[in-house]
Every structure is written in structure tokens, then in C-alpha cells.
């Protein structure tokens, strides 16, 4: 055995021993051992390894074995804290690992400097913003550095999903300290991003260690994102069906994060928000609560999760469409890191794609082009009827046989009918080939279907023989065909030219000797506008038979209690019951116009009857369809109730609230209908004697219909509509709540 081989063997033995003694593991996973040995020999290397495959061990273990301190450049404070806490958990000394970032107090900074300069620290995590400070560079120049690890290296590339300009200065900052080996690590890198990272770090000759991007334990699903109420119900049902599992919900805006976190909390889910608008202490507290399992669900912007080592995240939901497939892959990769199943659910609305594109309008043209291409890739993934795993892995330059998906995506688990499209693939490739150049998918599809838009006419493509060769089918169909050709490598995508397509060598071979291809047409999602999404009122799908029975039951209960039927529950409430089948008092309290007090007072016979009806008719109840909202807790309603307790004049109250008096009366009616008692007598006494009030009450006691117009006619206009309405509100409050 040569000396070099002997040294390499000794290194491997030492690495395995350290792995066992320090971390307690019996063996390495995937490329870990090869990467570690390469670093121990003082070489640059570039590591592409999926989330959960053990990237952090690739620099932690050699840092412990090598002389000096390893500098780990990380983009997020949360990531650093998590990693440092993790490594300290294996050691008796807290000095072994430290981080340097803006969260440190002066005393903390001094302690870090002391431990680093004494040689006690083997791993020092540094934010790129902190690295460029003179005091940091001075500190690092005075110590022995073993190597520099650049974690989340995709932040270097403007083609990556999380580009950070300060990351592009890492090489010059490292050079200002010492010429040491560099290790770049990322979970997501397309070939373009990979080249960009290596070029920027000056490590084009570095050895590449690339693991498969396939996370076989993750299930990918895309659902239409319709009205807000329906999406909220879908999310609630999805989470409740998974018990007390841990999960993450990603949103693009802080407002949406807060809204969904509040909705979940009000429906019994232990959820917390996480976004940049919260102060650092609150964010850290929410993150710790999630890691310590005091909270089951984190609702977050993309700021959350980078480097968070929580192995048992069972689901990742994307409420909004991600800006790129890299981002989607990175975020879904936080699920199922323990190797057990993780569910990845994406809600898709084409209108969200349009909004993302509008957000880029004011950016430089090049950035718009890059962003537009990344968004288009995400849309293609969501709309496709092909195996989602195959599409995702193809995006990262990896070929995958969809038969190996094992029904772990919705398109493979529930496939749409397929048809033979071999000749149409031939037609599409020949059409593109005839254009003699590189063109966008939109341009090619418009050429095939025969759409004479300006770009087609500018190239005079409408005068070519194959123009409109596929006019018998629509745009969605031909986009599906082109995407199929793309994942089978029949097309080249020129990333340098923002994704322009041309026929590849494999495509030419296919044209010479076509092989059979079957395909399901991609899904055309309905685009729901913001107005539809926010304001659409769900139509009731009422069980007419149950509704009739509930009306009879109401009459019976009313007779027993000596009250008019409408005091018990009004018709809209019965309709809602006949739609949602509540069988507990808690469920009943969420029915329109019921509330907690009314449910307790009158609800028992109704939920018992509904439970029997459901069982007898084998009805599958729409579980979790009733969302607890915050309407009862709105500032306006609370203000009204408090002001009535203080006996504030209703006219004055309406003025203070900036609403019409009629609107205030409507608010009062809603408050009483949800079971809250109100005492309006201090106001009614101003213009109605007690005898008149009792006369009106007597009328309402005997009325079988809840109709103000009938009451007005009964009293021959002696009382105004508003007087009668206020009296009815008081009557319902006294008798029904």
C-alpha cells in the first residue's frame, strides 16, 4: 500500500471513529464520507444534497478533526442558533461552537472572541453581513482557519430562489482573511445555479458531490385555490385529519400569515405566526415553541425553516404559489426528514401567478426575465398532469422513471385518462424545427394553433407552411405536449436566453424513429380574482328533508317553552344546520346566527335529532366545514357591547363609530342573534312608555312569523320600523338568550 493510500485509509478510520464517539452514529449516509475525506485532505468541494440528507455533518465532523476553526457562513440567525444548539448538545463545552451575528450583545460578542482566540472554538457560524465588518475580519486574521463552509450556497446565484447580493462578495472576503479550502453546500441547484456558484466562489475545478434530489417519502399534491372560506376549510380539515402532527404553512405575505394563524388558533390548532414583521425575540420564541412541540403548526413567510432541524414535520402546505421550483423544493424538503411520510400540499390559482409577475414590473429587465422564467416553471409544475416527481427532478437535471414514484404524487395516485400523443409530439417538434432558431414555449404554441399575434407576424412565421398545423386543438393541449417533450429531453432549454427552446439531439433521434407516448392533458385551473376570493358568499347546499324536520322540531320546542318559533332559531340558522349537520354543542355554536349561549339554551334536542338523522341516512358529514371566525371578537362589536353596558345613547354611538343609525341597528341584531344579551331599555325608555313596550312584547310573543312589516301593519303605523326593530331585538335578547 502506498503512503498516500495509507493516509487516506487512516483518515477514513479516524472519521468513522469520530462519527461514532462524538455523534453516536454507526455509519455515514450517501456521499457524506466521501465529502468529509475530501475536505480532510484540504480540497475545495461543492456539495448538492437534498434537505434532510445530512449536509451539516459534512462540515461539522471535519471541523472537529482538523486543526483550527472552521468558518461556516450562514444566511439566517435562526439557522445558526439551531446548528450551534445542536452541536453543543453533543459536547460538554459550550465553547466548541459559536455564532457571530447582529443578535449578540456586547458581552456575548466578547465571550465569543475569547473562546475563538483561545482555540476552544472549532465551529464559528458567521452571517455574511457580519463577515464584512472590519472587527470580524481582524478577529479571523488572527486565528488558524481550517476551512470555510458556505451553507445555503444557492443564495450566491441570482438564478437561485433566495438570491442575496452580499453572498456574491464571499470569495473576496475569504481571500482577505486567508487562502483556505472552500466547501459550498446547497439542497437545491439547477445546472445553471451550480455553475454560477462555482464561478463566483472561484472553485470551478472543485470536486462535485451530487446526491439524488428524490425524496421518495414525500407525497406531492396540488389543489385548486378557490374562495378563501373554502381554502381555510380545506386546510383545517387537512390538519385535523393528521392529529397533532407538526407542520408548516407557507404564505407570501405577512398579512396572510397572521390571518391563517389566527384562523387555526380559533379552531383549536396550536399555531403560531413567523415573519420578518415580528420582533426578533417573538420570532425566536415561536421557533423554539415549534421545535419543543409547544406549537404544532408554524404559519410563515419563506424566512422560516432554513436549516431548522426538526425531523418529524409531517406536512408542508403552500397557501400561495412559490416564486420558483427551487423554493418549493427547499420548503417541501423540510417535511419528513426522519424518513417517514410527509405530505406536501400546494394551493394553485393562476391569478397568483399574475400577481407575482406584476410585483416584478419595477425591477430591472434582466431580473424580470429571470423571475418570469422561474414563475413559469412553477406554473408548469402545478398545471401538469404528468408525474410531479419526474417534473421536479427533471428541473434539477435528474432523469426519473415515473413508475418509481409508487403513487407518491396526486397525478400518479389518481391518474387522468391518457391518450396516444406520439404523432402530436412529432408535429410539435417539426413545427419548432421549421422555425430555425430558439423560441419561447408561448411563441411555439401560438405558431402551432395559428394565432396571428405581433411576435408571430414580426418573424413572418404566419407565412410558413406549418403555421396553424395544430389548430384543431387548444393552447392547453399543446402546452401539455411541449412539456412532455421537455421532460423526455427532446427539447433544449437555453437558460442563458431565459428558457428559449430548440429541438435537442434526442429530439432529432425521436423524429427519425418515434417511440410511443401517452399523455393526459394538463389541468386548466380556474383563475379566481381577489374580489371573488375575498367576497364570494358560499351558496347553501341545504338538505331539504332535514330542514323540514328541524322546522317541525323548532315548533315543538317553541310550544314547550311558550315562545314563538323564530325566537328559538331563525330559518337561516336551520338552513345552515341542514347543510353542515352539527352534532355537538360546539359545532352548533358555529352555525350562522346561533352562538354559544343560544346553543346551550336550545341546542340539545336539535343536535340529538341531527345525529340520529345522520346515522339513519348514512350521511358523510362535511367534517371541519364550520370555521370559527373572529366576527364576534371584532373591535366594532366589542365596542358596541361595552358602550351599551355604559348606557351610551345609540345615536351618539353610531356617530362615534362613523356609521348610519340603521347600520348600528343591523349590528345589534347580529349580536343578539349570536346569543349575546343586550339591554337597550335605557334607550327605548326615552321614546316608548313601559305600557307601550309591553304591548309590543305581547304582539311578538304571539306572532308566528318573524316579519317586521306584519308588525308595522298590525299597529297601523303607530310605531316606526326602527322602533319595532329595536323592540324585537330586545324581545329576542330577553326571550332567546
Tally of distinct domains: 5
CATH architecture type of the largest domain = 3-Layer(aba) Sandwich
Count, helices:
36
Approximately what portion of the residues adopt beta-strand conformation?
Answer: 5-15%
Average pLDDT over all residues: 83
Looking across the biggest beta sheet, what order are the strands in? Answer: 3-4-2-5-6-1-7
Determine Rg (CA atoms, Å).
33 Å
**First and last CA, distance:** 91 Å
CATH superfamily of the largest domain: P-loop containing nucleotide triphosphate hydrolases
Task: List how many beta strands DSSP finds.
Answer: 17
Q: Which blocks of ≥5 consecutive residues have pLDDT under 50?
A: 1-7, 531-540
Q: What is the approximate shape?
A: globular
Largest sheet: 7 strands, parallel
Class derived from helix and strand content: alpha/beta
CATH class of the largest domain: Alpha Beta
Quote the CATH topology of the largest domain: Rossmann fold
State the helicity in percent bands: 40-55%
Can you walk through the features of this model?
The protein is 49% helix and 10% strand. The strands form four sheets. The protein has a seven-stranded parallel beta sheet with strand order 3-4-2-5-6-1-7, with helices on both faces. It has 36 helices and 17 strands. The relative contact order is 0.06. The chain is α/β, with parallel strands linked by helices and 737 residues long. It has five domains: 3-210, 3-Layer(aba) Sandwich (Rossmann fold), CATH 3.40.50.300; 218-413, Rossmann fold (3-Layer(aba) Sandwich); 419-519, Winged helix-like DNA-binding domain superfamily/Winged helix DNA-binding domain (Arc Repressor Mutant, subunit A), CATH 1.10.10.10; 544-616, HRDC domain (DNA polymerase, domain 1); 631-736, Orthogonal Bundle (Arc Repressor Mutant, subunit A). The model is unreliable at 1-7 and 531-540 (pLDDT under 50).
